[in-house]
Amino acid sequence: xxxxxxxxxxLSASVGxxxxxxxxxxxxxxxxxxxxxQEPGKxxxxxxxxxxxxxxxxxxxxxGSGSGTDFTLTISTLQAxxxxxYYCLQYNTYPWTFGQGTKVEIK
Amino acid sequence: xxxxxxxGPGLVKPSETLSLTCxxxxxxxxxxxxxxxxxxxxxxxxxxxxxxxxxxxxxYYTPSLESRTTISVDPSKNQISLKMTSVTAxxxxxxxxxxxxxxxxxxxxxxxxxxxxxxxxVSS
Lengths: 107, 124
Hints:
The complex is a heterodimer.
Chain A: E1 4-7, E2 10-13, E3 19-25, E4 33-38, E5 45-49, E6 53-54, E7 62-67, E8 70-75, E9 85-90, E10 97-98, E11 102-106
Parallel strand pairs in A: 2-11
Antiparallel strand pairs in A: 1-3, 3-8, 4-5, 4-9, 5-6, 7-8, 9-10, 9-11
Chain B: E1 3-7, E2 11-12, E3 18-25, E4 34-41, E5 48-53, E6 59-61, H1 63-66, E7 69-74, E8 79-84, E9 93-101, E10 118-122
Parallel strand pairs in B: 2-10
Antiparallel strand pairs in B: 1-3, 3-8, 4-5, 4-9, 5-6, 7-8, 9-10
């Protein structure tokens, strides 16, 4: 199975900060990478698919980049509602696999 | 707007079978534009993909669960089902059903939307 290594596992940031989360695949997955945001007690929500495509309704401060094995999710200007846990997902090869998550906390 | 709603027992005894249903509203599960999946998330952990079922009813499962997991569809009820046999405490998790959109001429859009999830606890 393709392993998705996500880092950091947690970070502290302030409103207005720029935040970057990284996901590394154990083998190439082209651009078959999604990013999800999960608030406590809720289902994950799709932010980005195909590595960089913004899902409809998602604010433009979220962006994704990368292809092959290395990917990043960037929040350009962190807002209060962005404090949550973020997961990457590879859907290039079965079994589809998630990263272990990055918890974004308030500094 | 497509909505998914999971349902089933919240408590299952060890060695028994977990059975969940996902009812889809706002669209037909038989549309050629998407297929369906199940994901689970143990408390405090990352989501884990369980399996997908395509419109031709072919399916794929994560290897660690494949031998005891079955996903099926019932178009007459617009439902997707999950059955997992011989459960243990390690199967305690919130279970989600999800859609994968397959727009023509474009890449897949995975896992959107999600159901609200249903907590299944395995305990005697």
